[in-house]
Protein 1
Amino acid sequence: MCSYKGHVSLVAPQCRQNWTIFGRVLKAEIYTLCPLEMKRNGKKANPKIMEKIFIADAMLGRLAKWMRIIGCDVEYFQKISNNEISERAFHSGRIILTRDTMLIRRKINRENCFFIKYDHYQDQLKQVVKAFSINPMKNLFTRCLLCNKKLLTIDKISVADSVPEYVYYTMDNFKTCPSCNRLYWKATHKNSVVKQLKQILGLK
Ligand SMILES: [Zn+2]
């Protein structure tokens, strides 16, 4: 993916050491370019290689929640220092999503920081989805909203004692979080979430 004018390169932890800074600051956003992608002459990179993973700063809780709804891997902590965000991002290859220009200025973050321009989560989500070419419908409801872990499918029979009787007899598909064990199923509120998401992103 080209990293110029609104197209941001994706994190590839395995080649992180070789990243070069393409254009440090352009219209208040930082753009970096992975050499793997340069070789592709702007052609779309293999999504298996270029997995996008993020860490959001403490000001971006609603953005993080909505990104998890659409299946993005986003670490978020209500209380976290700039030092800790920087270290976690550096060692995990996560892209820092931030409204904090002090965080962006840190040398350690120069290659993996993305400045969120907007105050409202709707605009923030639009910005991220567009910049990182995320398909918002592809992995919808596949991640735990609390823990950020990928949900696992679970046998219906094993949730019989854990969900309301009505839910058990009307739903067939259940998922669980491997970290907090919370159960997920397709409830009516999911339709309203999808409706909101489409409104935010201007989708039909
Ligand atoms: Zn969980």
Protein 2
Amino acid sequence: MYDVAIVGSGLAGLHCARLLAARGLRVALLDRKASLTDGIHTTGIFVRKTWEDFPLPDEQLGPAIRDVVLYSPARRALRLAAARGEFRIGRMAWLYLWLLEQCSRAGVEWMPSSNVVAVEPGRVIVERRGKRETIAARYIVGADGARSPVAGGLGLDRNTELLVGVEEVVAARGEAPALHCFFDPRLAPGYIAWVATDGQEAHVGVAGYRDRFEPTLALRAFRDSVAHLAGGRAVERRGGTIPVGGILRRIANRHGLLVGDAAGAVSPLTAGGLDPALRLSSFAADVVAAYLDSGDARVLGAYTGDRFRARFVARRWMRRVIRAASHPLVMELGCALLRTPPLRALAEHVFFSRGSFPDVAPWRTALGSQLSARSSQLSGPPAPESREPIADSRAAAQSTSRFAV
Ligand SMILES: Cc1cc2nc3c(=O)[nH]c(=O)nc-3n(C[C@H](O)[C@H](O)[C@H](O)COP(=O)(O)OP(=O)(O)OC[C@H]3O[C@@H](n4cnc5c(N)ncnc54)[C@H](O)[C@@H]3O)c2cc1C
């Protein structure tokens, strides 16, 4: 019997698994993928506050990006420049492997090629190597993405507002580092098309509401139109679903809880989910450890989406506006308004401010002091996360020979 079974080994599941195992809990980490480097579905743009607050390996984050260029449907450009580098593109395959190595060192049991087909209180049923197996666990964490089967199995809330995104990765050809964001409802209805380049690699993608466009065709048309920014052969294709309805309300009960995309922890406006995945997982690890230690279900009351949703009111409204701007002329007008000082300031705030996901540090501290039994572990400085010595993440990743990654 495991203490915790974590379904899904994206950023949220890996981070949560490591923190729980570091507390001495017996943790199983499952994923249907055979390797963490298969089917990556994120561009991997990290914001400054993430790499400042969490122990990510510096050598797996690309050069810092300061410039954001916004384009109207008629391709009129508006350049925003931050005072310093605010974004870095993660080398996601290496980052995942590095995190898995951290999990291994903490004692996490990694179970790749484990497709979870059912979840019930106290057990997870998986298909592995053509057979059905039951994995018993005192508590279950759903880190299984936007369409979370765990949420359904445990009777927790599920995401309903979803975008679909697809992108290609190409080698950059010395273009200046920048995030190029294209507002065009014909190519990306309800979101943006993008070229994100840090001078070493470039990501070219589109995302939007699934019922309003055909992602592959839109990507092809978009790539043709931005060949001057990121031409060349695709070395990798990525894609996935992005929940943009805001964090869900019911994300925990006595049997399990949700983290990352499964909990809807994504900015409804920017669709950024990497920082929220780490922040919410840190808090989740505290809550799970405290609950298993004390058996007191009141601890779980701290882990509710209502606590976070208030922070997202303005962003959810802005999402409604973007969703409604389905005609290119309306979007053109909106982009023209962005040139006025107040709206330009708002755009700079959205891209460059530190405040996308609520800071969970005060709640972590409150939880720590609430539980005297574990107070020595829980009430330490909650952020930034403790930094463990990092040698070379590539070497570390390569040393994961006992993992089928
Ligand atoms: C195209 C695209 C680009 C994006 N770009 C950015 C960006 O640049 N910056 C940013 O901040 N955010 C970005 N996002 C959002 C961000 O990637 C996600 O919010 C974040 O990766 C979520 O991490 P996660 O661990 O919650 O979920 P995931 O990374 O989706 O991990 C879920 C895991 O669960 C596994 N799983 C699912 N079902 C099962 C099952 N039944 N059994 C076993 N395992 C299962 C999956 O295989 C997967 O490994 C992007 C999203 C997309 C789609």
